[in-house]
Design brief:
single chain, 221 residues, alpha/beta, Rossmann fold, 8-stranded mixed beta sheet, 5 helices, 30% helix, 24% strand, globular, binds D-malate
């Protein structure tokens, strides 16, 4: 079942309903309790990573989102000042919006919050990493393709029950290996169980990324 929607509002029992941030999104029901939260790269949309999500997990529900920031007409999840130079205030605000949206969507689509796995590529991986650092309660696991340090949090999060798989390009012209390794150290020092793999590629995703990420996802079930 595919469902497209513009907004999700949360039910808060007897309390007033708090307006929730909207994201254009697509929800595809699954056969298992797992949901992959799909976050595209610059210029993508809510449908971009649906085929990748299906390749990674045949049975999971899929929730694809469209970033709300436009850069020359291209959707992104937060503003940047230049390639790799982020507008940190916007990034923080958008990270909280995204985290609140995931909580509301879990309520609406009956998603098991203990079985959400973020799958992000590039800009989408960066905001997923930001969510791990600023809202560590939201994501129990993440698959991050071509990710970098999005920000340095003021307080160290507790990621002791979080598992992360990172796919990096050894020849990525946008993200240096040292930057990705810095993120790995940041996540590990917060307690996360992190697997990192380098591929003989640039910023583009390879079939090896997909194969190893799928294997990892099967092992963390
Ligand atoms: C970003 O802006 O998140 C990174 O530079 C990756 C990109 O989207 O090009």
């Amino acid at each position: 079942m595919h469902r497209r929607a513009n907004s999700v509002s949360s039910r808060t029992g007897s309390r007033n309903v708090r307006p929730q941030p909207d994201f254009i999104h697509e929800f595809v029901a699954g056969k298992s309790n797992r949901t992959l939260l799909l976050l595209h790269g610059t210029g993508g949309n809510e449908r971009d990573l649906i085929p990748l999500g299906r390749e990674l997990d045949l049975d999971a529900a899929l929730l694809g989102l469209r970033g709300k920031v436009l850069e020359n007409g291209m959707p992104r999840f937060f503003r940047r000042l230049a390639e790799g130079v982020f507008d940190l205030e916007d990034l923080k605000k958008r990270t909280h919006e995204l985290a609140d949206f995931v909580t509301a969507a879990a309520d609406r689509y009956k998603i098991d919050i203990h079985q959400i796995v973020a799958v992000g590529y590039s800009n989408g991986a960066n905001i997923a990493a930001s969510m791990l650092l600023l809202r560590p309660e939201i994501l129990p696991a993440a698959v991050l393709f071509r990710v970098m340090v999005p920000l340095v949090p003021e307080t160290k999060p507790n990621l002791s029950s979080v598992r992360v798989w990172i796919g990096a390009g050894a020849h990525d012209p946008i993200i240096s290996a040292s930057n990705t390794k810095e993120l790995v150290e940041m996540l590990r020092s917060a307690g996360a169980d992190v697997t990192i793999r380098f591929f003989q590629s640039g910023h583009e995703l390879t079939s090896d990324d997909v194969d190893l990420a799928r294997e990892w996802l099967t092992s963390v079930r």
